[in-house]
């Protein structure tokens, strides 16, 4: 029975922030589930609770109500086996690129030659080889974000959480990153939870796109993207791609966010 | 590869080389001219004017000594001045180091424990609101004449910038960064050592630099009130006997000491946080 359960199961989850300045009902209730290896894209108006959902899912924030299970285990506290990438690359200026990538291993006391090689290979796959001993501030925004993706993937997490990782990048770099991430993700076979405010990006990278409403965020649509992977950038001009982006855009138009 | 921020020199290569070199020379000259030559000339001119004014208007020495007179006094009484300087240096440095240790410990306690923060906060606010200078005469009453009260006065004078900058620094790590290391299962200790402390360092150093400039000032004020040695005492003594050239000489040495401490602090900062934006 357990084997047929979904990889991640979210049931009626809600999150309310209680702060000195007031109570914010940020999220839900929402319910959904997804399978191992899937890439789930999340789009929704800004401030609707996407980041909150990611943090609750990864166990970084407590939920106010509801149940979350990952591999049939209840989530209470940070998950053991995840990589997270935020919009800001959050690289540590006092460490070299390689030392930044090695941080998760170092925190678990697991730095050895094997993990160093893994770090170098990841950097190479992401196109940042040759910069291992540079300081983060010597790299451009796009390269920094690749380093932070390498850091997130270092310990082969079973889940990768990406929170608008490319929002600060220019359009061309962003396209390039989309292609790189798709390749890497297929290679690493990591279940991915991917937040973006770009509809095209969500559809391009995801097996499934979840559309969220205004705050408190709820699911207003859940779309399978059947286009086979790997996809090329020009797939964005194909009719089946455009059908999906249009469908999402219509939701936003109705909600008055676009 | 094109994403690395390195200037592309090919633009210069295609230019006429002679023209390029001429411009480089001009830029170098302008840098020297504005950077050191102009300020130096202005300084020399000022001293010259001062010297001429003193002789021209036949000003008495006790009102305004000429630069040369000050210089002569400094040479004549160099050993005495140096022994006073040594006393001031000891009071400033010992006081500064005590304030540094105390300030960082108290700052770290406040930043990591909300209860300690709440307990200490009103006291710090009150203590900080009192102008430090008024404490000096009280120290004379409480501790008496001598080095000990000088040191304590330096501590009083330099403690607050260090506490404040330590607290600010330790609290300045980005929430998302803290959540990121939480996702990597960092414990409190690791978060402190690998994230919070390095993030705090640039702030702490700005506090240290304020304290470093404050230390000689504190020592001198302390010597005004409760000492029979040190450059502050020398200054009071000189003014009291209308020995103005000696007073000027003391002031110059105090200033040089202040500037030296400042540069030392800058140097230590540069060596400790070469990665910070202010040091690149
Ligand atoms: N730590 C927090 N404390 C209080 N309110 C928060 C916090 N984080 C987010 N919020 C609020 O929750 C709502 C959803 O925020 P967020 O999840 O960041 O939205 P999104 O990522 O979709 O833009 C916003 O109104 C935001 O102000
Ligand atoms: Mg967000």
Summarize the structure.
Chain A: Keywords: ATP-binding, Nucleotide-binding, Transport. The complex is a heterodimer of chains A (258) and B (280). Chain A has 258 residues and is α/β, with parallel strands linked by helices.
Report on the architecture of this protein.
The complex is a heterodimer of chains A (258) and B (280). Chain A has helices spanning 50-57, 97-107, 113-125, 141-153, 171-188, 199-205, 239-255; strands at 8-19, 22-34, 39-43, 65-70, 73-74, 82-85, 159-163, 191-195, 208-212, 219-224. Chain A is globular. Chain A has 258 residues and is α/β, with parallel strands linked by helices. In chain A, helix 2 (97-107) packs across helix 3 (113-125) and helix 2 packs parallel to helix 4. Chain A has a domain at 8-81 and 157-255: P-loop containing nucleotide triphosphate hydrolases (Rossmann fold). Chain B is an all-alpha fold and 280 residues long. Chain B has 2 domains: 7-58; 67-279, Orthogonal Bundle (MetI-like fold). Chain B has 11 helices and no strands. In chain B, helix 3 (67-76) packs across helix 11 (244-272) and helix 10 packs antiparallel against helix 11 (244-272). The chains are: A alpha/beta (258), B mainly alpha (280). The interface between A and B is medium-sized, with 30 and 23 residues. Adenosine-5'-diphosphate binds next to strand 1, strand 2 and helix 1 of chain A.
Keywords:
heterodimer, A: alpha/beta, Rossmann fold, 4-stranded antiparallel sheet, 7 helices, 10 strands, B: 280 residues, MetI-like fold, 11 helices, 0% strand, binds adenosine-5'-diphosphate, binds magnesium ion, transport (chain B), membrane (chain B), MetI-like_sf (chain B), NitT/TauT family transport system permease protein (chain B), transmembrane (chain B)
């Amino acid at each position: 029975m357990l084997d047929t359960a979904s990889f991640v199961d979210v049931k009626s989850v809600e999150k309310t922030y209680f702060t000195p300045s007031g109570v914010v009902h940020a999220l839900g209730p929402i319910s959904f589930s997804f399978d191992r290896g899937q890439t789930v894209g999340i789009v929704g108006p800004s401030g609707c609770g996407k980041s909150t959902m990611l943090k609750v899912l990864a166990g970084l924030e407590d939920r106010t109500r509801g149940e979350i299970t990952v591999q049939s285990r209840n989530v209470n506290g940070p998950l053991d086996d995840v990589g997270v990438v935020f919009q800001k690359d959050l690289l540590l200026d006092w460490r070299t690129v390689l030392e930044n990538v090695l941080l998760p291993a170092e925190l678990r006391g697991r730095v050895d030659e094997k993990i160093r090689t893994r770090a170098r290979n990841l950097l190479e796959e992401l196109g940042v080889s040759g910069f291992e001993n540079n300081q983060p501030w010597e790299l451009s925004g796009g390269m920094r974000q690749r380093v932070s993706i390498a850091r997130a993937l270092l310990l082969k997490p079973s889940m990768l959480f990406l929170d608008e990782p490319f929002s600060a990048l220019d359009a061309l770099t962003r396209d390039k990153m989309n292609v790189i991430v798709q390749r890497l993700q297929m290679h690493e076979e990591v279940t991915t939870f991917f937040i973006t405010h770009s509809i095209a990006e969500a559809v391009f990278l995801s097996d499934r796109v979840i559309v969220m409403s205004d705050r408190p965020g709820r699911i207003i649509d859940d779309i399978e993207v059947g286009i086979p992977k790997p996809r090329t950038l020009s797939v964005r001009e194909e009719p089946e791609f455009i059908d999906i982006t249009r469908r999402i855009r219509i939701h936003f138009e109705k909600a008055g966010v676009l | 590869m094109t994403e690395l921020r390195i200037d592309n020199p090919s633009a210069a290569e295609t230019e006429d080389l002679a023209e390029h070199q001429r411009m480089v020379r001009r830029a170098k000259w302008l840098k020297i001219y504005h950077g050191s030559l102009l300020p130096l000339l202005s300084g020399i001119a000022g001293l010259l004017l001062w010297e001429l004014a003193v002789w021209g208007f036949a000003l008495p020495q006790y009102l305004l000594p000429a630069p040369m007179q000050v210089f002569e006094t400094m040479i004549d009484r160099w050993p005495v001045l140096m022994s006073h300087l040594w006393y001031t240096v000891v009071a400033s440095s010992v006081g500064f180091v005590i304030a540094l240790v105390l300030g960082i410990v108290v700052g770290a306690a406040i930043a990591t424990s909300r209860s300690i923060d709440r307990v200490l906060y009103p006291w710090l606010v009150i203590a900080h609101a009192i102008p430090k200078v008024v404490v000096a005469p009280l120290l004379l009453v409480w501790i008496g004449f001598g080095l000990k009260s000088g040191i304590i006065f330096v501590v009083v004078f330099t403690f607050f910038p260090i506490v404040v900058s330590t607290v600010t620094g330790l609290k300045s790590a980005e929430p998302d960064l803290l959540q990121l290391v939480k996702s990597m299962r960092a414990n409190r200790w690791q978060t402190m050592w690998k994230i919070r402390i390095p993030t705090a360092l640039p702030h702490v150093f700005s506090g240290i630099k304020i304290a470093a400039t404050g230390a000689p000032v504190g020592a001198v004020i302390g010597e005004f009130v409760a000492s029979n040695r040190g450059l502050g005492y020398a200054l009071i003594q000189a003014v009291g006997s209308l020995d103005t050239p000696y007073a000027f000489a003391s002031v110059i040495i105090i200033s040089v000491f202040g500037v030296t401490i400042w540069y030392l602090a800058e140097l230590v900062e540069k060596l400790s946080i070469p990665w910070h934006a202010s040091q690149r």
